[in-house]
């Protein structure tokens, strides 16, 4: 299960060009008020919750914890000159997205609802 749920998530809105980022991500847990960790010592299988066995983490997370996910990807060369959106099908309560060290959009608050950011200005043409 290298890439769980590989199909397009909303078949009625399928796009010809898209990339699925489900799979193994680097992962860290810090205290809720800590900044970004220096290292990500674990790996988690997205899109599963950290508490679930399918995530590979399978331990209790509390309101005193902050979860950090990190993933490297390359935008396909054929997408040059086009807008690139990063879509999240769901997220826990509060999510801040960073692309190449810059925050993408506003902090998203809301439990388990979809959201997206246009990340085109944050891309650097590489990884």
Describe this structure in words.
The protein is 0% helix and 33% strand. It is built from no helices and seven strands. A hairpin with a 2-residue loop joins β5 (94-99) and β6 (102-109). The chain is mainly β. The protein is globular. The strands form three sheets. It has a three-stranded antiparallel sheet with strand order 2-1-3, with no helix packed on it. A two-stranded antiparallel sheet has the order 4-7. It has strands spanning 23-31, 42-46, 65-70, 85-88, 94-99, 102-109, 115-118.
**Assembly category:** single chain
Spatial order of the strands forming the largest sheet: 2-1-3
Termini gap: 24 Å
List SSEs in N-to-C order. EEEEEEE
Low-confidence runs of at least 5 consecutive residues:
none
Major sheet summary line: 3 strands, antiparallel
Count of DSSP strands = 7
Q: Provide a count of the helices.
A: 0
Shape: globular
Class based on secondary structure composition and strand pairing = mainly beta
* Cα gyration radius (Å): 15 Å
Q: Which bin fits the share of residues in helices?
A: under 10%
What's the average pLDDT? 90
> Beta fraction of the residues?
25-35%
């Amino acid at each position: 299960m290298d890439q769980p749920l590989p199909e397009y998530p909303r078949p009625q809105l399928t796009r010809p060009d898209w990339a699925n980022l489900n799979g193994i991500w680097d992962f860290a847990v810090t205290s809720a008020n800590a900044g970004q960790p220096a290292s990500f010592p674990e790996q988690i299988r997205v899109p599963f919750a950290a508490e679930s066995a399918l995530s590979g983490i399978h331990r209790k997370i509390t309101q005193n914890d902050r979860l950090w996910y990190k993933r490297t990807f390359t935008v396909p060369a054929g997408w040059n000159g086009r807008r690139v959106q990063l879509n999240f099908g769901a997220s826990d309560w509060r999510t801040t997205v960073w692309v190449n060290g810059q925050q993408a959009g506003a902090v998203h608050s809301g439990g388990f609802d979809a959201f997206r950011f246009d990340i085109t200005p944050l891309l650097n043409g590489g990884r």
